[in-house]
Amino acid sequence: MENYIKKNIASLKPSSTLAINEKVKKLLNTGKKVFNFGFGQSPFPIPEKIVSVLKDNAHKKDYLPMQGLPQLREAISKYLLKRTGITYEKENIIITPGSKEAMLLMHIAFDGDIILPAPSWVSYQPQAQIALNKVHWIETSIDNNWFPTSKQLEEKIKKINKKNIILIINSPNNPSGSICNNFGQIAEIAKKNNINILSDEIYADINFKKNYESISKFYPEGTFISGGLSKWCGAGGWRLGFFAVPKNQSNFLKALKTLASESYSTVNTPLQFAAVEAYRGDYSDYLNKSKNILKSVGNYVYNNLKSNKVLINPPQGAFYLMPEFLNSKFKTSNDMCEDILYKTGVALLPGSDFGFKPNKMLARLSYTDFNGEIFLKNISTTKSLDDEVIKKYAPNVVEGTNKLVEWSKTL
Ligand code: PMP
Ligand code: GLU
Q1: Residue 15 Cβ contacting ligand 2 at under 6 Å
Q2: Cα angle at 93 between 92 and 97, to 5 degrees?
Q3: Nearest ligand, CA of residue 231?
Q4: CATH code at 150?
Q5: 279 Cβ inside 6 Å of ligand 2
Q6: pLDDT at 2
Q7: Are residues 258 and 162 part of one domain?
Q8: Ramachandran category for residue 372: left, alpha or beta (phi over 0 → left; psi -120 to 50 → alpha)
C-alpha cells in the first residue's frame, strides 16, 4: 500500500520536546556529558500524601464516568474559583489524560481557525494540523514580554474574517518564561469580536508574582481553561489534566465528552482519586519552596547569561528562559542549537519549534537539570537563594550556563 497516510499526518514529526528528551538520553548513554536544558519537566517529587492516596486506591478497578470522577471535578471547580474568581461548574469540567489530550479533542471538535502567538508551545500547531484547523500566527516581541498586543490581535481577527476563532494564550509561558501583562486588553478585543480564548494554565501555580491573574477574569463567558497535575505537583508522567468551559458553552463540553468516550474512555481510576487530594489539600508550602528554588535558579541563569550578545528577559514563571543569541553566523536557530549541543553539551530547543521564523536566533532553555528532591529537602526558606546554594544543588545548571556563556563569546 502506498501513500496510505493522510497528508496532514504524514508531514508531522514527533514532538520536538519528547524528541530532545530521547536524544539527550541516548547521548548520556554513550557517556557524553550533556546538560539537559531541552526538556521541560518539573524536577520536584510528587508530594508524599498524594502518592499515598494513589497507593491506597490502587485496588480500585472499575471504570469511572467518562467525564471523570465527580469529586475530582468538584475539587477542580473550587480550585478554579479560588484561583480565578470565576465559577466553572463541575458539570462543565472534563478530566483527561493530560491537558495535551484535552487540547487535541478541542481541536477535533472545533470548526474554525486558530490564532497562536509566536512563541507558542510546540504542540498547539501540530494538533491544529491533525484536526485540519487553519493556524494564524502573531509574532510577538520582547518589548511586549512575548505576548500579542491587542492591536495585533484585532488586526489578525479582521484579516481572518471568520466567525469561529480560538486564540490560545499560555501564561506563565512556555517557552518564554514570561507572564502576560495585558490580559484585560486582549480579553476586550476577544469579547468585542466574539472569539473564544483557550487559557492554557498548566503553569498557573508556578508563577513568581504574588497574585496570578487568569484571563477568564476579564472574559468568563468566552474562556476555556486547561490545566492539570503535570507541572505544579511534579506529576508529568501521571498524565492527569482537565478542561473547563463556561456555562453558556456546555454544548462544546458535550462534544469533548463524546470524543473522550470514543477514544480513551475515561482516565485511570486510582489516579483520579489521588488527584482529588492534590486539588483539595493545602500544598502551598511545597509550592512556595519549589517556586523559590525555580526562581532563584532561573535568576542565576539570567544574570550570568545576559550580555551584549545575549538578549533575555528575567524569569517570571514556569521553568523556561528564551535567550536570543545575536549573531549572523548561523542560518537557522536549529543549526545554532546543533552547534551548541555539539560544542558544549548543552541541549536547547530552537525558537523555530515555537513558531518563530527560522532565522530568528532564539532558543528555549529549561533550567530544570537538577535533583529537585535533594534541593527541596535541604532548603526550607522562601528567601532568594544565593549563588553558593545554587552551585551546591544545581551544579549542572551552573556548569551548563558557564559553557553557554563561553560559547556566546565566540559569536
Ligand atoms: N501546555 C504547555 C504550555 C505545556 O508546556 C505542556 C507540557 N507538557 C502542556 C500544555 C501539556 O501538559 P500535560 O499534557 O502534561 O497536562
Ligand atoms: N511540556 C514539556 C516541554 O515543553 C514536555 C512535555 C510535552 O511536550 O508533552 O518540554
Answers
A1: yes
A2: 150
A3: 1
A4: 3.40.640.10
A5: no
A6: 64
A7: yes
A8: alpha
- Give the angle subtended at the CA of 384 by the CAs of 378 and 389, to the nearest 5°: 45
Residue 343 CA to ligand 1 center (angstroms) comes to 30
**Cβ density class 31-59: b for 16+ within 10 Å, e for less:** eeebbbbbbbbbbbbbbeebeebbeebee
Please give the grid coordinates belonging to residue 22: 530521547
Q: What is the CATH number of the domain that holds 380?
A: 3.90.1150.10
Q: Are residues 168 and 55 in the same domain?
A: yes
Boundary-marking domain end, from 280, 309, 337: 280
- Distance between CA atoms of residues 111 and 119, nearest Å: 24
% the chain with pLDDT above 90: 90
Q: Whose CA is closest to atom 10 on ligand 1?
A: 100
Same domain as 148, residue 217: yes
Nearest-CA residue for atom 7 of ligand 2: 17
Q: Dihedral sign for Cα 6, 12, 174, 228, please.
A: positive
> Nearest bound ligand to CA 364?
2
pLDDT at 1: 65
Q: Which helix (H) or strand (E) holds 135?
A: strand 135-139
Is pLDDT of 21 > 90?
no
Domain count, the chain: 2
The Cα diameter of the chain in Å comes to 62
- pTM greater than 0.70: yes
**378 in the same domain as 309:** yes
215 lies in the same domain as 101 = yes
Residues 35 and 173 in one domain: no
Domain assignment of residue 337, given as a range: 2-45+284-408
pLDDT digits (tens, 9 = 90+) for 28-84: 888 889 999 999 899 999 999 999 999 999 999 999 999 999 999 999 999 999 999
User: Is the distance from the beta carbon of residue 174 to the nearest atom of ligand 2 less than 6 Å?
Assistant: yes
Q: What beta strand segments (E) does 150-249 contain?
A: 165-170, 196-200, 223-228, 241-244
State which of 230, 253, 280 marks the end of a domain: 280
Name the helix (H) or strand (E) containing 347.
strand 346-347
Query: What number does the ligand 2 atom closest to the CA of 366 have?
Result: 10
Percentage of the chain modeled with pLDDT above 70:
100
> Residues lining ligand 1, judged by CB closer than 6 Å?
40, 98-100, 121, 170, 174, 200, 202, 228, 230, 236, 241
Task: State whether 76 and 102 are in the same domain.
Answer: yes
Residue minimizing CA distance to atom 5 of ligand 1:
174
- Together in a domain, 267 and 288: no
